Amino acid sequence: MFPYRMGRLSAAPMLPLCRLLLIPILFHGTVKAKEACYEHLGCFSDSWPWSGTLQRPFALLPWTPELMNTRFFLYTRRNPDQHQIISAQNVTGIGASAFQTNQNSTFIVHGMGHKAENNWVSDMCKAILEAEDVNCIGVDWREGSGNIKMYVQAANNARLVGAEIAYLLQVLQTEYGYPASKVHVIGHSLGAHAAGEAGKRHQGIRRITGLDPAKQLFEDTPEEVRLDPSDAGFVDVIHTDISFPLGVGIVKPIGHLDFYPNGGKNMPGCPPKLSDLGNMDALVDTLTCNHFRAFLYYTESIRRREGFLGYPCDSYKSFLSGASFPCPEGRCTFMGHYSQLPPALKAPQQIFYLNTGGSISSFSSWRYKVSITLQGTRAFMGKFYVLLPTTGGGTQQFEIVSKKTAPGGNFSGFIDVGLELGPMDNMDCKWAPVFLNIFRCQFGAQRIEIQSGKDGKVSAFCGNGTVQENVLQKLILC
């Protein structure tokens, strides 16, 4: 059903997952601190705040570098389809590779049960390389990323992954004069916190993007445990799975900019989380669908920059009601690859909302306000539809619900369209009654205005007369 699966995640670990969700509530104790040190990576402790708290009751150290076997898969425009492995412990090999010291670098860190080849990581690298000439490096820690049964260990292993990234950046800076200001680290789930650890250990990283950072063992922890704004010059976060109690993404904002597409839960196209209880394989796909949307949205944003415009709002409810529509000047920004701090940002941290499409082939969406001036034989209470172009050359009808409206009255609603509307000479609309049209009423649109959320521009269309229910009425540009 979905293009990316968890690999070693299977139906069997579902019970341990439920137990894991209850651990912070049932257990809170003290542990005897231990420490592990490695010459090139530094030291790791299992003392507070890494354990002994309500959020992190268990004391575990990361696995050793040898067990983790973290590898760096380099893709460039010279080798977009076949990666090269580079290592901080092989400086000569870096120099002989396709790594370009005059270009920026993007590191992509996967989460639990994934790898950095032949999946979404390599797909994202290919999309980035189509748009930019950069070094794209997949960080592969499949040996330590584990599965649900070893989630607590995997969460601690992410610290060592971050240290390995920091060590490679240190070597690049020392041996090649390559600054951290050229580096962007993208991390999904546990990989987002690994990216944060890299930023803590190697100062000056330009940007870190957290793709639905993992919640369990990280929500409400001190900043040194999780991704936070101090880890890079710019930290942006996409939240797609914050529903209670089965959401696995962190709920609270933890970046400079935090995006909550579709309110951060119930992504369009994803089935309800417990809709496949009779099929355990399908259940795994269902449980991870929202969580995986984060990296799918990011990948599509590379190709469709303007299809992921975020609106600054206090809540998803206020966004749906039209707050910050159209975009306040200088305060909106794009979610995903082209995200940047808005010039008129009013706070050091800002929350943004947007809606997305639900098709696996197209998640981008453009928001519009449709205002209708009604004409008819009596008060109208029903559903009004406007028909607008869609990708592929067809049309799609969008419902604008009206409260009881007298002839000559106005009503409006917001719609999310899968493409940016270009100039139109005309448009169609129709209406339908709530119940039977026993009085044979006729209604029509005297005027329809379509306002773009991106820039506030309005296109107005004028109509004459009325039509019966479910009959198309054509309006022309006023």
Give the DSSP E fraction (strand runs of 2 or more residues): 25-35%
As laid out across the biggest beta sheet, the strand order is: 4-3-6-5-7-8-9-10-13-11-12
CATH level 3 topology of the largest domain: Rossmann fold
What integer is the average pLDDT? 90
**Largest pleated sheet:** 11 strands, mixed
What structural class should be given to the helix and strand makeup? alpha/beta
Query: Please, how many domains?
Result: 2
Helical amount: 10-25%
Helix count equals: 9
Write down the overall geometry: elongated
* CATH class category of the largest domain: Alpha Beta
Low-confidence stretches: 5-31
Q: What is the CA-CA span between the terminal residues?
A: 46 Å
The CATH superfamily label of the largest domain reads Alpha/Beta hydrolase fold, catalytic domain
Q: From the 3D coordinates, which CATH architecture of the largest domain would you assign?
A: 3-Layer(aba) Sandwich
Number of distinct beta strands: 21
Task: Encode the helix/strand succession as letters.
Answer: HEEHEEHEHEHHEHEEEHEHEEEEEEEEEE
Q: Radius of gyration from the CA trace?
A: 25 Å
